[in-house]
Amino acid sequence: MNEVMDALVNRRSVRKYKAEAVPEELVKEIVEAGLYAPSGMGYQKPVIVAVTDKETRDELSDLNRKAGGWKEGFDPFYGAPVVISVLTPKDWDKGVEDGSLAIGQMLLAAHALGLGGCWIHRAKEVFETEEGKEILKKAGLEGEYLGIGNLVIGYADQQPKAAPRKAGRAFFIK
Ligand SMILES: Cc1cc2nc3c(=O)[nH]c(=O)nc-3n(C[C@H](O)[C@H](O)[C@H](O)COP(=O)(O)O)c2cc1C
């Protein structure tokens, strides 16, 4: 199978990670894949915040846990050492589309580079909190941004299988 097709078909959401750190070059490559995503009108509005610092990663995990309503002790990042958040300016009307595509590209890039990844929701809620805004400031990001989504990445400690594709979802006019 063509390599890109293979990645598209075989990438899976990983929900169990090894503690092993992800080399910085790989994190940068994944972020690059997000920066190269198509964007509405080519405006390149999405911004990407990659967190490898454990303290900040844990803080984001806890804010995400609270936003999801889970009990203390649950890690919505499943032990992954890296979290990457995607945000777009609040006044950009194609933010959800642009940001989602950037996340999709980064998930595929992680898979292609031998890592596992998973989309993690609730970026909107997390970056609406004062603590979330402080984290953005720490990254050097000021202004009004809407959280679109996060992905976590790390070395996979499981090999999930794809659910069968539901029939009747593709239509062709020949
Ligand atoms: C918009 C969106 C939000 C998601 N949020 C979460 C999440 O918060 N936590 C999680 O474990 N998976 C999340 N996922 C991953 C999906 O559950 C996963 O893609 C789906 O079950 C299919 O599995 P696959 O990615 O292995 O094909 C999300 C996916 C999308 C597209």
Automatic annotation (TrEMBL):
Statement: the UniProt record of this protein carries the keyword Oxidoreductase: yes
Domain Nitroreductase intervals: 9-142
Keyword set includes ATP-binding: no
Entries under Pfam families matching the protein: Nitroreductase
The entry's keywords: Flavoprotein, FMN, Oxidoreductase
Any one GO molecular-function label of the UniProt entry: oxidoreductase activity
Family designation: Belongs to the nitroreductase family.
Name under which the protein is recorded: Diguanylate cyclase
